[in-house]
Amino acid sequence: MTHQSHAYHMVKPSPWPLTGALSALLMTSGLAMWFHFHSMTLLMLGLLTNTLTMYQWWRDVTRESTYQGHHTPPVQKGLRYGMILFITSEIFFFAGFFWAFYHSSLAPTPQLGGHWPPTGITPLNPLEVPLLNTSVLLASGVSITWAHHSLMENNRNQTIQALLITILLGLYFTLLQASEYFESPFTISDGIYGSTFFVATGFHGLHVIIGSTFLTICFIRQLMFHFTSKHHFGFEAAAWYWHFVDVVWLFLYVSIYWWGS
Amino acid sequence: MAEDMETKIKNYKTAPFDSRFPNQNQTRNCWQNYLVKTRFHHVDQADLELLTSDFHRCQKAMTAKGGDISVCEWYQRVYQSLCPTSWVTDWDEQRAEGTFPGKI
Known about the structure:
Membrane topology (chain A): Multi-pass membrane protein
Radius of gyration of chain A: 21 Å
Order of helices and strands of chain A: HHHHHHH
Strand content of chain A: under 5%
Distance between the termini of chain B: 41 Å
GO molecular function (chain A): cytochrome-c oxidase activity
Number of helices of chain A: 7
Family (chain A): Belongs to the cytochrome c oxidase subunit 3 family.
CATH class of the largest domain in chain A: Mainly Alpha
Helix content of chain A: over 70%
Order of helices and strands of chain B: HHHHHH
Structural class of chain B: mainly alpha
Largest sheet of chain B: none
Pfam families (chain A): COX3
Helix content of chain B: 55-70%
Keywords (chain A): Membrane, Mitochondrion, Mitochondrion inner membrane, Translocase, Transmembrane, Transmembrane helix
Distance between the termini of chain A: 69 Å
Oligomer: heterodimer
């Protein structure tokens, strides 16, 4: 009987990378079909296969780690590097949209009236719902830290409670922002102001939803006793991602909502 | 005819250097001068002379026959020199329609 003599994880063959790539193809071509030919079939198929891929891939990671013990310390270190690199790439993603915003707002063209906000745009009051949104996300940053400490101190009930609060705050932010989008006096097609506003805040909102989903998975895993006080990288990755989402919002708030009004 | 052309060409000037706009992109220069000209457009000529510090230069212009350039005429020539004609016509049309985005 041969066993590996190293601490690394030689992953068994898996179909999910292939289904993931195929789902990406279906989603991209589906978008084109939706934009140009008013058909959502390919897109829906792509979204379905993408969701199934993610569910099954990450379910397998949980099986390999929690149930089969493959996540030794060096493996976990690799996962940490991976998450950090991923979040770094997301930082660059948002940097592009902030660049676009500042490019247009620092030197407003004659077409806009030579000032920012442009003529005809009534920006949202930064001291109303946007400020509430800021406090909601900051509070959620506190609650997730509480959850982490509770987890490390083996306090099961408080971990569950704090994680739930974090998720609820995330949901509250999403609902508030959705209502802001609905009530807003300007739309995405209202010149460069509308474009920069909704693309930047829109992608942020998407990331809040992704982060909330990640936290919810952690919540379920916590209920199922997956985490120990010493080993809970999934939770840490979710927490890092959540803090990143919070920081992006702070930049959005200061730049677009506050300075940009 | 030739004499008129010669004197005309001698009097051709372009907008002088404005240190507020030192770079190659002079869009803001054109825009600023157009705005200033349209802001002063409705002001009565006499009031304008009183408002400007170039009162004496304006006074001289009133007596001399087209020798000196009056203040509001000055801005007009600057933007006409700097700005693409199509921009000026577009902006004039917008002002007539009430869709001009600038703060006048």
